[in-house]
TrEMBL record:
Entry keywords, A to Z: Cell membrane, Cell wall biogenesis/degradation, Lipoprotein, Lyase, Membrane, Palmitate, Signal
Assigned protein family: Belongs to the RlpA family.
Gene Ontology cellular-component annotations: plasma membrane
Recorded name of the encoding gene: rlpA
Pfam family, one: DPBB_1
GO biological process per UniProt: cell wall organization; peptidoglycan metabolic process
Catalytic activity, EC: 4.2.2.-
Designated name of the protein: Endolytic peptidoglycan transglycosylase RlpA
Species lineage: Bacteria, Pseudomonadati, Pseudomonadota, Alphaproteobacteria, Hyphomicrobiales
Organism per entry: Rhizobium pisi
GO molecular function: lytic endotransglycosylase activity
Amino acid sequence: MKKISRSIIAAATIAACSSLLPAEGFAANGCGGASWYALRSKTASGERMNPAVLTAAHRSLAFGTKVKVTNSHNGRTVVVRINDRGPFIRGRVLDLSRAAAQNIGMVSSGTAKVCYQVIS
């Protein structure tokens, strides 16, 4: 009986701790800083960066993932496709193409607080 109790306690502890640890599935939604860029170099996915297309960089989401981005300051939203890696500045969660940044009204400021949600 004592052995079964310990197994149950161990399993419950592992389950509780695993829910506290960050996992890839939890990257589906988030908030943080965003910036924009308009280079014409190759992205991490291998395609050429086009500032006129609604794309973004994220550290870990799969290439091709569609993400709805909301500017927390004005409520404007845009749907982007992840095609690059980044940003690599603390506190930032997305680097948007110029077109995406323009859609949510953050071109002039250069950065904005955003929330994002994976939609497909």
